[in-house]
Amino acid sequence: MALLQISEPGLSTLPHQHRLAVGIDLGTTNSLVATVRNGISVVLNDENGRAMLPSVVRYLADGSVAVGEAAQAMQSEDAANTIVSVKRFMGRGLKDVGEISRLPYCFADVPSTGSGQDSGMLQLRTVAGVKSPVEVSAEILKVLRSRAEAALGGELVGAVITVPAYFDDAQRQATKDGARLAGLNVLRLLNEPTAAAIAYGLDNAAEGIYAVYDLGGGTFDISILRLSRGVFEVLAANGNSALGGDDFDQRIHCWLLEKNHLSALGPQDTRLLLTHARAAKEQLTEHAEARITAALSNGEVIDNVLTRDEFQSMSQNLVEHTLQPLRRALRDAKLGVADIKGVVMVGGATRMPQVQHAVEEFFGQTPLTNLDPDKVVALGAAIQANLLAGNRSGDEWLLLDVIPLSLGIETMGGLAEKIIPRNSTIPTARAQEFTTYKDGQTAMSIHVVQGERELVSDCRSLAKFELRGIPAMVAGAARIRVTFQVDADGLLNVSAREMGSGVEAAIAVKPSYGLSDGEITRMLQESTQHAQDDMHARALREQQTEAGQLLEAVQHALEQDGGLLDQAERTLIETQMGLLRDTLQLADHLAIKRAATALNDATVSFAQARMDKSVAHVLTGKKIAELGDK
Amino acid sequence: MAITLTENAAKHVQNFIIKRGKGVGLRIGVRTSGCSGMAYKLEFADEVASDDLQFASHGVTLLVDPKSLSYIDGMELDYTREGLNEGFKFNNPNVKNQCGCGESFGV
Questions:
Q1: Is A214 annotated as catalytic?
Q2: Which of A300, A327, A353, A428 counts the highest number of beta carbons within 10 A?
């Protein structure tokens, strides 16, 4: 018979209607799945009692796929078909992945077709055919899904999947697509640091600022979160995508080579020593020393004792490397160490005492370490999944996330007009009205951009589309409402509607591929560094646009009613127009403004004359009595 | 008249209540639904209702409403593991038939 779980008071589900939901930590090195059972978030183990599934996928010639340990074991023998750390490729093009030549894979760059979710994303040629990172991730997710369904005894209603805080739209979309491919209904994508904070129950804690220090196998991330009114906001994110626990193993490995005067080991011996190095590292967390004995393939036996002190001194600078991004993150957030209310430790490498000491010393407080740092992200995701699946009472409202970079559109002069400012909570929808620039304009190009800078050229282009069929009107008369909608996963829909006629156009933003690691942080940093320049650039473009409009209007008037002017008046206007055209070339918005004002002044009497003429035209042939009736 | 827990089940319940951080015991009941007529209810209890019947088993307080009791009297709750799945199993002597998965039953 079915095995029942304890529900919260009043929330027993009807038979066959249990809403089974899981949280998935889809990691670069390892992945985990967790769920809330009997009111507690727990990680689900496989049949061998292992919680972590190595994020390794191997494609075999017969079309079968191995995932996890089995794939990892063949990593060096069958490197080209064994995909490791696929997360680094999610939503990326070849250009975004730097060190292609150092990777053992055969890449297939797909020319961007502008359609289809994978366009522009790199692909991997394997013995089983060309695979996209989305498909590779789906294989990992499928294994976790079947593990969860076996453990929970039923089909899942959905999953919350965690992504790094710096993941952009393309990377998030790719993650979501991978989940769908694995047959998972994605309830929500959740930022990893936010998930860790939830696991520690910080969403129920007092409002304040928290730091999440995440030192994984191969990556380091630091996030500064602010919790206010149940919303976690990522104030700053920083890190090092090439620093992790593996580097500590490497240090011990080098020490072993040096101690035993070894050089140029084969791949098998290298792997053997790395495995022993890793075991020694883990032993040194609990013990003051670790003994390393191993028999190399040439029969040589090594036997060394590594003390904790030795290990700490050889890895000291690795620990220090994590403190630099920490300082940068705090500086970006304009915060001091004293502002941090709590520190959450994530990632297996944070078990090392020297890491904990360094973090404790840096923040002047003991970091939170009582949850398993390997599992904390998955545990938080499971709590969120349970909430989203509707298994908790209604008074606990959903925790929200925020968008990392502002979203907006390009306006005349290449300016970025922000429609949804950064750090807005999602889901959100905002609309803004725009108008036409020229008389009789019937189409409008909408260019969706992401970033904090004032000029479109400094922001990231997300999508372009056109609104056609706007009825011909004078410039400024059309009312075009542009609506931005961001769903709970941070994915964007943009629509434009001409309010008079109702013509509409819309686009779902699925960017071809994303920003490189840390590029979001770089963009944010630049926006503060360039604030002054940007303001100036914005003022300049605005003046240039206005002046252009003025010149066009005057030119038009001259063509139509030039006859109303005498030669002197005409020369004056034309001189002022020439002056304005010349100043347009200069990067001085005040000069442009002065020249535009001068031109305006010079045309006052002309405008008066035109007005009189059109009034006269309207009145011609009408009787005074008729006018009086109106 | 009594409802009991196996020692193993009691250990798990105590553990869950400690981790949950609150709760006076376990509420067990039945309600009419499911393909075989009745379904079990298994919830954490945060308070005792005035007409609740209380049983103590291996240190855990079990709360049952009087209407439910006649359907589950003499029942023993066990905590078992089946493959990757684990949870509470109801050994109810009153059950005459139950649906394939055992989530609902008839008396």
A1: yes
A2: A428
